[in-house]
Amino acid sequence: MSDRLPGSGRFSLALLSLSVAVLSGCASSSTATKPAELTEFKSSLTVRTTWRTSVGAARGAFLQPAVLENALYAASGDGTLLRVDPQTGAVVWRVSVDAPISAGVGSDGFTVVVATPRGEIVAYGADGKPRWRVQAPSDVVAPPLVGRGLVVIRSTDHRVIAYEVDSGKRRWTYQRQTPPLTLRASSEMAFAGDNVLVGFPGGRLLALALTNGAARWEAVVSESKGTTEVERLSDVVGPVVVDARDVCAASFQGRVMCADPANGNLRWSRDLSARGGVSLSDRAAYTVDIGSNVQAFSRDGASLWRNTKLAHRAVTTPLALVNGAAVGDLAGYVHFLGNEGDLVARVQIDSSPITARPQRWADGVVVLTQDGTLALLAPQR
Fold this sequence. Notes:
Blueprint lengths: L11 H12 L22 E9 L7 E2 L2 E2 L4 E4 L4 E5 L6 E6 L6 E5 L3 E5 L4 E6 L4 E6 L9 E3 L2 E5 L5 E5 L5 E5 L15 E3 L2 E6 L3 E6 L5 E6 L15 E7 L4 E5 L2 E6 L6 E7 L6 E2 L3 E5 L5 E5 L4 E5 L11 E3 L2 E5 L4 E5 L5 E6 L10 E3 L2 E5 L4 E8 L1
Parallel strand pairs: 2-7
Antiparallel strand pairs: 1-33, 3-4, 4-5, 5-6, 7-8, 8-9, 9-10, 11-12, 12-13, 13-14, 15-16, 16-17, 17-18, 19-20, 20-21, 21-22, 23-24, 24-25, 25-26, 27-28, 28-29, 29-30, 31-32, 32-33
């Protein structure tokens, strides 16, 4: 198999510009896309900030923390990688990878992995000691997926590559033809049994065997429509999420869908142009559309609610909570929504955008801003 697909790398400038335009959520002079003003509401949820720690600015990179039971791993755009105690926010160790960081952090609790703009994949131990460094075929913007004895990365030329976690030796590569124009947006992978689930341009979700990278099944998230390359964009965006019942994904100018994780058979889908991925609770699937409207669907696909009060505020993929969901926005606010979609609490971390999706640690919510403020929030009813 050749190292480069025919036509790969075409439209790179258009790809970057388009991604910024449709997914950054930056305000424009148009009234239609002006971020909604935040209005007062009666809070029914108390949210305490347990701790805050500065990890260094992301500098535009797609960075997010790896959240584990006994450790948080975070990175900054200038090449700093650190381990944080999730109970106290204290920095356990801090190292330099000797290069800027473009993607991360991925970790299984034993190995910690980031990627550089030049496509280097860099692995450290949980003690902060370097383990290995290998070169990927192109740059990486999605966090590496670490586990099952592998480090799985997805490069911007849409190759999926698995490396042995102990040595960095390449185990397999999966490559497929993709449309000439794609979004430069982070699309996170997920493990499902002995498969890795990967969303691709063209609205496709694939299950690849961890043993050899062979495609086990393919599900259609959405079909490309329109006559121009821009109109036909339908990339899977944000994280692919999976639990015992469903695997769910969402696509730009496409749909949100859930399927059987064993075979990819569709359970349900709804038309939606997604800004981020999906988050699941026992009762609902949460996602966000390109206009930053947060939406909730029942686990069988029925619409539960749609909150439009955060329109054009560049909100993150929601985090499903026991009683609703939480999202970050372009001004450093974390918004908590209740079971009926109403705003129940709001906390500002700092004034910079939150692009990393909020994540759970114990009963708290871990948030990272672009300026590098890592915080643990504790909702208390």
